[in-house]
Amino acid sequence: MQPKKFVTFLFGWWIVLLMVNCSPKHENPAPEKQQMKMLGSWSGILPCKDCAGLDCNYSFYADHTFSFLGDHMIIASPHPEQKYEKGKWLLTTDSILLLTNVNGEKISLRFYRDSLIYKHKKDKSPLFSSFHFYSFTKDDIKKAWYPMASHGYRFAAYGFQPAWRLDIGNDKSFHFTIEGKTQFAGMFSTVTKYVENAEKMMIEAFNESNRIKISAVQRTYLDTINNYTFPWTVTISLSKKSVNQTAEYTGGGKCLGEYLLVGRWYLSSIDKLPINGVLFPPDQSRPYLEFDPFEKRFSGFGGCSNFTGEYEADQDSVVFGQFALNQSDCLKRNYENEFIKMLIDNKFKWIKPREWMTFRSGKHELLFTDKP
């Protein structure tokens, strides 16, 4: 390494170490405008000796309280072990975030360029390499839907203060936690009441310890912590037999089915006629659709021309809006026109078993695969 480059490298690491390691001399609160930047949920992954990692989530509230939820990502475990903490937070004028839990234990993180930096000491060596730096980034709650859908959940709901979560699986299971601890888990087959349609969902069940009533209606709910509007309002009533008391929790919910559309899907057949040289010339690229549920937009290739537009989808149906078509100079487009016309003219029911996806509307069927 050249001397000049080495000095630059060394200086860069020295700045990082100073940035993270220096403790604030004074715990003076930062201006309110700066404090407001902390509100919301922050996520990151920390190392774990006996698991694949500790998936961490901090939620910071306007009253300067925080909650922490850590999932030990244990391989082949459907429900990871969870750690929960809560306490007080303060952002100082030195951009140090001080966290004090209910036991008085403190940790500090550096707020730097819209990230929270945590320094982990690997061993007792004074060398620079003995430190690892991990960052937490502020969550875009919309980006959480896809991984949840891909792991078998079809509905999720959240609430705060206290932090609670409801998951409903494709296997007709449901799981309710408060501050990371399971309060109720069951299957639809064992509930005393179950109602579900396009506008509402109700579940009532009981076990030896608790009775639960879940009510979800298609009415918007504003999450002021993450500044996100949920399409469903969810109310959960939990009665504990041991203390003869009932608590009610309200939050927002989201159907996750449409997030399984994420990605690029290659056309395999039209009305059960395989895509080959008859419909699409062998020298042309394969037609595909690509969905972005976060922006409610799609794009694609018809075999000759590119197109884009908007769409609406729910748990099992999709409707395509007006197309913007960038036509190429193709000798003939009959094969492409058939594909695009079918998309425009129909409301489809969609089914996604693993790597295949089927769109059906009346007598028409489009079969897609995730393999190019």
Task: Describe the structure in your own words.
The protein has about 375 residues and is mainly beta. It folds into three domains: about 25-140, NlpE, N-terminal domain (Lipocalin, Beta Barrel); about 145-255; about 260-370, Lipocalin (Beta Barrel). The protein has four helices and 28 strands. The chain has helices at about 5-20, 30-35, 145-150, 335-345; strands spanning about 40-45, 55-60, 65-70, 80-90, 95-100, 105-110, 115-120, 130-140, 155-160, 165-170, 175-180, 180-185, 195, 200-205, 210-215, 220-225, 230, 230-240, 245-255, 265-270, 275, 290, 295-300, 305-315, 315-325, 345-350, 355-360, 365-370. The protein has a nine-stranded antiparallel beta sheet with strand order 12-11-10-9-19-18-15-14-13. The longest helix is centred in the N-terminal third of the chain and has 19 residues, at about 5-20. The protein is globular.
pLDDT under 50 segments (min length 5)?
2-25, 74-79, 123-129
User: Which word captures the global form?
Assistant: globular
Quick one: biggest sheet?
9 strands, antiparallel
Could you give the distance between the termini?
Answer: 44 Å
Supply the number of structural domains. 3
Into which percentage range does the β-strand content fall?
Answer: over 45%
Structural class: mainly beta
